[in-house]
Structures
1.
Amino acid sequence: MPCNNNCNQGRSCDCKKDANVDRATVVVVTLLLICIFSIIFGLFKLFNGNTGQDCAVEVQFSGSKATYIGTSI
């Protein structure tokens, strides 16, 4: 039954604000913000996080071994 703020007539009406909708909205907005932040951070690390790191590649030929030392681009 719709609430008209007149609940003293013996009818079963609930004049309280629905807290479940507010709680669900907060949860959904929080999860969306976490997803957006994760995507932005992942893209940042993808483009800027791996530049200039030292690396070494070890190559083994038949009878000899070589290690190439450099920096990633």
Note: The chain is about 40% helix and 20% strand.
2.
Amino acid sequence: MPEEGSKFKTQATHILKQQASDFLCRIFNSYLEVAIDRNNRAGHTETVETAFLQVMKGHTGMMAKLLSFNEDWLLCSIPIVVTTAELFRVRFHAGNVPLKTGKIEAGDVTVDPIDFCAVNYHPNDELSVKSQFTSMQRESVRSDLMYWQRRTIFVVQGEKVRGFLGWLNEFRPSHNS
């Protein structure tokens, strides 16, 4: 139990838990945004990076503000980007990509549509929430990247939000875990 007169009446912890990816929600460490124009040519855009940075700035600010209040808070905050874009899981063998050109042949790629996914995003240090409840130490570059800078953002295709929320309701961490 917390000490008498402490800011929090409940025993709070801040944990980051690693677990295997659920079949319905793949977790990716890399991503690529590609736009197709009317002449059937591909082009790269930067809106996904902007969306990830924006959602992490808002999430970090909200968590810092909530932690600063002199009230009890039991919450789970989940950053989500909802997009009108189609989402795909793309699989290929890196050994089939020539280092000279970096181009992947169409026959070497498998593309599967997905409704939603999670992306491990690495924002800058200013977006790491400082919490008195974390038990993890900043002791190495590896721990910094794995536990302090990595944030998982869910990306959901707009028309699939209802299915995502149903999955999230079933999959979310319980208060007992």
Note: The two ends are 18 Å apart (CA to CA).
